Amino acid sequence: MVMSPQSTEALERRVRELEAALEGAVAYMKRLPLVPTTLDEVRRAEKVLLQVAPPAVLRGERHYSSGVMVVRAELIGDVLTLTSGDVDNLPPEMAEKYKLSFYEKCKNGYQVKLAPVVGPKILS
Question: What tens digit of pLDDT does each residue of 22-45 get?
């Protein structure tokens, strides 16, 4: 699922709010009598707060009007991967036309709008 920049900003803001609330809850629990259950919950919450977020994944595609993909751009952290559409299965003259068009687009600066990719939660 690709999210709009507005919904991504709202999501990031919500995550910061939840992290702040969790930090407050941890600080409160540390003031409680340190029984094993409370201590386990404090450790579990602190472990979550210390996890490093995975690098952001941004992805976008552009297509010809025929539906053939021109290019896919994927940015993971600071690594950009560009993939051109597979035109080798097209008739040779059509494939050559697409390849030339792709070259011209890249030569002139072809823009691909990237959006954050949000996938299913991965439970560890």
Answer: 999 999 999 998 899 999 999 999
β-sheet bridge partners, residue 117: 2
Q: What's the pTM? A: 0.51
pLDDT in tens, 54-88: 767 889 999 888 888 888 999 988 889 998 888 88
Question: Closest Cα partner for 105 from 45, 73, 62?
Answer: 62
d(C-alpha 51, C-alpha 83), whole Å: 31
Q: How far apart are CA 72 and CA 118, in angstroms?
A: 17
Q: Which two tokens stand for residue 99?
A: 């390849």
User: How is residue 54 written in tokens?
Assistant: 């995975």
CA gap 30, 45 in Å, rounded: 11
Beta bridge partners of 84: 71
Task: Say how many C-beta atoms besides its own lie within 10 A of residue 98's C-beta.
Answer: 20
